[in-house]
Amino acid sequence: MTEEIITIDKLVHGGQAMGTLADGRRVFVWNALPGETVRVQLTKSKNKLAEGIATEIIKPSPERETPRDEAYLSTSPWQIMSFSTENAQKQAILTETMQREHVNYDAEIPMLAGENQWQYRNKMEYSFWADDYGLHLALFNRGSHGKRIVPGSSIAMPAVDETANKMLEVLNKHAIRGSQLKTVVVRANQAGETVAALFVKDESFPELPELSEICSGVAVYYSNPKSPASVMTKELYVFGDIKLTDQLLGTEIEYDVNSFFQVNLEIFTQALTAIKKAVSSHPYVDMYSGVGTIGLALGGAAVLVESDMHNTEMARVNSKGTSAVVVQATAETALDHITATDYLVVDPPRAGLHAKVVERILQIKPPVIVYLSCNPITQARDLTLLQQGYRITSVTGYNFFPRTPHIESLAILQLIK
């Protein structure tokens, strides 16, 4: 592969560092920091740009730190910098994103972080690697289809990695082959209780009673080999209870191993507190509501709109005894629930708001919009459209995923009257 020595200009959205090759092309590089001179091994090369990984740090940044994990590029590639630098870089990237998309917001955008930069993730998904010594937990090398053996991850809660390794012991005891397996998903609540889902490629996968002893509940799913890793085709068997419970702002929220739940509750609670303040006691609609982590924790009169079946089932369980109404539908097919009287809370996937949702908002004009996003680029795109009828009163960044480049941002919008 081609190698070249370059100087790094800055970090960009997505987590890579950017520099310029000798031929003038921009190159996006993992394992590099602004101001560093690095030797880059190119992994992709196109006419106008290239991608690569820094294999040698010739002139390191004073902000560079030694990563905790050997496989840090696979799960948390920003282990290479101090936590204060990480937060400053995320703040700069978020601010630049809003400015580039011409979002009308001139105030400083803060980047809020929790105390825990390690061992915060309550969910991990591991693949498997098999060799002459048996099965091992594995992760994919960034930018490739190759895997590497790992003992766990420094950003995972200890209980998560402990359960994953116990699962590994059982599989090795029964001489399960790597060709039979896809991935294992492990989740933990704040009390340290864990549940797991094992996705296998063998529809006749044997029942292993010892799996019932590794955590509170284990589900084993057959997953079509042609489908993505953690997609269930058929449930083979379940031991115990695969549901967990956590508290958010004093409200108990139940979720199972398959449903969506925030991975960093410490910092999510900060965002949730800000959302509750913005909504106050006003009736609201919670679009893309998941299991109700936002809508039900806020209390009050709410309509929860969610498309995923697993999430909807849990939302109905969580809403019992409340006035909340749960609607299973995609946001773009539930437009009638966006009204001119109710506030609107949205937490869409990375693709952002559906165009029909934006169109409906601008037509019906809810008084207040609360927009939590896991992708500032699509959020900025949507804010630019929404500012035709709304004033953006605040934008706040949250470091939900320390040691990774991911940024969560919260925007509050008020109708212009």
Overall pLDDT, averaged? 96
Quick one: biggest sheet?
8 strands, mixed
- Unreliable runs, pLDDT <50, ≥5 residues? none
Number of continuous helical runs: 8
- SSE arrangement, N to C: EEEEEHHEEEEHEEEEEEHEHEHEEHEHEE
The coarse silhouette is globular
Going by helix content, strand content and strand pairing, the class is alpha/beta
Please give a handful of descriptors for the protein shown:
alpha/beta; 8-stranded mixed β-sheet; 3 domains; 417 residues; OB fold (Dihydrolipoamide Acetyltransferase, E2P); Rossmann fold
Description:
The chain is an alpha/beta fold. It folds into three domains: about 60 residues, OB fold (Dihydrolipoamide Acetyltransferase, E2P) (Beta Barrel); about 190 residues, Rossmann fold; about 120 residues, OB fold (Dihydrolipoamide Acetyltransferase, E2P) (Beta Barrel), CATH 2.40.50.1070. The strands form four sheets. The protein has an eight-stranded mixed beta sheet, with helices on both faces. Strand 8 and strand 9 form a beta hairpin. The longest helix is centred in the N-terminal third of the chain and has 18 residues. The model has no long low-confidence stretch (mean pLDDT about 95).
In short:
This protein is an alpha/beta fold. It folds into three domains: 3-64, Nucleic acid-binding proteins (OB fold (Dihydrolipoamide Acetyltransferase, E2P)), CATH 2.40.50; 86-116 and 256-415, Vaccinia Virus protein VP39 (Rossmann fold), CATH 3.40.50.150; 123-245, OB fold (Dihydrolipoamide Acetyltransferase, E2P), CATH 2.40.50. The protein is 21% helix and 33% strand.
